[in-house]
TrEMBL record:
Keywords: Cytoplasm, Methyltransferase, Transferase
This protein's encoding gene: 5572638
One matching Pfam family: N6-adenineMlase
Family: Belongs to the class I-like SAM-binding methyltransferase superfamily. EFM5 family.
Protein name (Swiss-Prot/TrEMBL): Protein-lysine N-methyltransferase 5572638
Places the protein is found: Cytoplasm
Naturally occurring in which organism (per UniProt): Aedes aegypti
GO cellular component, one term: cytoplasm
EC class name: transferase
Amino acid sequence: MSENRTHDSDDDDCQLPADTMLVLQQFLREKELREKAEETGELAGDKGFEENWQLSQFWYNEETKVKLARVVGHFKSAFEGRDLQVALLSSPSLYHHVKEVVNNVTLFEYDQRFASIGEDFKHFDYNRATEDDYLEEYRKSFDLIIADPPFLSEECIEKMGIIVRKIAKDDCKTVLCSGYAVKEWAKKFLGLDICKFEPQHERNLGNEFASYANFDLDSVLSEKV
């Protein structure tokens, strides 16, 4: 009898409080629903997708998404009815905000989860930049490119530069969001100058981030909405 009472007492000690158990059950339920939605393709863009840190994914915060979407809107207005062709390179968290502004958006992204957005998705690997025929079908296709290289290395920026030059139209406007550490390479490989605008992320990251462009990005962002 004493052994049973001791065993029952141990079980009681291990039980979680009711409110904690409720939170745990809710978390597990949401996790299950998220996994099912990813499997069926119900999730698109960054909505519902967790960042994959192994792929160096860090989502922009809402303010940054809105500001970069405003840049897209600025050039849409400047085109006066013509179709603005926009490319997003390794920046999936921008997709939904940009798509609300213009219809012609192509997301170049390595993470296959984002294939759920449909025909706007193009699987992309910057390491293939030196292949002569890589992305050849997109040569001189885009009026505006927003790129966020996954790594703060010279090799990554150089290869992103090769791809940007290939897919950009002659008068293409380019925005690069990356770390302060790539300032020299952004100029060398893409011809971009540093701007005052500093992209922010949902999580606080250790590296300082900056923006680079081949036009006056700060003036565009200072325009009244």
